[in-house]
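Technical annex B. To support the medicinal chemistry partners, we prepared a structural model of the target in complex with zinc ion, based solely on the information shown next.
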Amino acid sequence: MLNIDHLGIAVKSLTQARKFYEALGVAVAKEEIVAHEKVKVAMVPMGESRIELLEAIEPDSVIAKFIEKRGEGLHHVALHVPDLPAAVKSLKEGGTRFVTEEIKIGAGGHRYVFVHPSSAGGVLVELVEEQK
Ligand code: ZN
């Protein structure tokens, strides 16, 4: 069974965005920089899932471009898969498009890859696997 690992939300300011969740009594995790994505990330625990707040740290970050075009908002849905290389292989065989083919390492050391929205009902989907 797959779970929703997290929902990624593009925000202009983590400092501002985390206040909403903190006002609801949620302990927002410490901010982390993911240098190769040019973002600063704060995870908001939500039961078995999480909300990932994303702020651009460079003007050419995908998050900066997203906000410029569409404003703040839901950026991606991340699904937790037990075996990422196997999932990627089977999706590729079915003709699924990926944003980049290469599996990357994200905040907290998990492995991830992005499925192109054209293959997932117009939604940017991230596939995530815990680092073993
Ligand atoms: Zn994410």
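Notes passed to the chemistry partners:
The radius of gyration is 15 Å.
Residues 6, 8, 52, 76, 78, 126 surround zinc ion (CB under 6 Å).
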